[in-house]
Specification:
With 322 residues, the protein is α/β, with parallel strands linked by helices. The chain has helices at 16-29, 40-46, 79-91, 103-115, 140-161, 176-184, 199-208, 229-239, 261-279, 299-302, 311-320; strands at residues 3-8, 33-37, 49-52, 96-101, 120-124, 163-169, 189-191, 216-221, 244-249, 285-290, 293-298. The protein is built from 11 helices and 11 strands. β4 (96-101), α4 (103-115) and β5 form a beta-alpha-beta unit. The structure holds 6-O-phosphono-beta-D-fructofuranose (F6P). One of its GO terms (molecular function) is AMP binding.
Amino acid sequence: IKNIGVFTSGGDAPGMNAAIRAVVRSAIYYGINVTGIRRGYEGMINGEFFAMDRKSVSNIIQRGGTILKTARSEQFRTPEGRKLAYDQLKKHGVDALVAIGGDGTFTGAHIFGEEFDIPVVGLPGTIDNDLLGTDFTIGYDTAINTVIDAVDKIRDTAESHDRVFIVEVMGRDSGLIALRTGIASGAEAIVIPESKTNIDALCERLEHGRKDKLSKIVIVAEGDDVGGAFEIGRHVKERFPHYDTRVSILGHIQRGGRPSCMDRVLASRVGVAAVEALKDGHRNEMIGVIHNEISYTPFEHACKHNVEINPNFLKLVEILAI
Ligand code: F6P
């Protein structure tokens, strides 16, 4: 391998820059050239390529977002779009790829790697943590810390006003952000898509919880089966008109900010491992970390989307909210 192309795709995640840095620096370490590709698959199709060196990744390990920019590409979903992308890679002498992103990115990478003779490996970069083949994804740790910071602040005002707050967090169709942040912020209840929501049971939990504590926090994953925080808020208001209920959607603040130490270290480890994997002949695999060891998971397994929820976590919330 002489020239590795690196790109970020899909939703950005804190730590993506640390991953880019690790790919660039380790490639240089091993005597391989690196080409940066801007705006993910879209930029690949449009030929947005540039040579990267040691200095192009200076002073980025601590920055959120992605210096390579990102996009979700409709064109790459078509065989014609993928052929254009391949032609651009050939034209620029790129002979291997490191894709940094989530399930959409790897679904594309999987098809591309099978259609064309180009080794592709992936790094798990998404705040959602919804990939198999890694204990954690790059960006998840920072995002959950951003959430608990925000919920701590909401709790202050909830407490002052004796209010019920229904707080919606991201995660697409995964409840993993809600699950951990619910525990860590001391929420009264968590609503996640992985377990069926029983509105009556939820209301009961709020009503029969501590009588001396009128402020309550419910963390809702955006992909829940009720229809989001506003819908849950509506049910709670209907059932308990005497509660002063507010809804707060945290939104895209969860995607930004300085990556945490955990995300920087994870990104650095898998970034170096990706370059080493390509050198060793790996292809069509996501590089993750399982039980603190580097792991290699075929793309089609990584994006299977059935990361299991530990039921003990939900029980924890119930036990600790008494
Ligand atoms: O996959 C990351 C994520 O932030 C999800 O949690 C969320 O559902 C989605 O991206 C939002 O996407 P966009 O920024 O395109 O609205």
